[in-house]
Specification:
Belongs to the AB hydrolase superfamily. AB hydrolase 2 family. The chain is of the alpha+beta class. It is about 35% helix and about 15% strand. The protein is flat and about 35 Å long.
Length: about 80
């Protein structure tokens, strides 16, 4: 069946990040979300990264992964 995501959006790249110690959004919900995403778009384009010991926050490691993802998928600005 055709879902709400079609055309070029089927091939969008997604980076989902989650701390494995998040007390507000348990890691299980992140895992369920990424599986749902993979059922809606090309699963090869979905990346799920977890960060050991990270709570409901961010880390330098996560921000470096986000930067790398942006550098890979967006054209450079002159």
């Amino acid at each position: 069946s055709q879902g709400p995501i079609s055309g070029v959006n089927k091939d969008i790249a997604v980076l989902q990040c989650h701390g494995d110690c998040d007390p507000l959004v348990p890691l299980m919900f992140g895992s369920l979300t990424v599986e749902k995403l993979k059922s809606m778009i090309n699963p090869a384009n979905v990346t799920f990264k977890t960060y050991a010991g990270m709570m409901h926050s961010s880390s330098l490691e996560e921000m470096m992964d986000v930067k790398q993802f942006i550098d890979k998928h967006l054209p450079p600005i002159d």
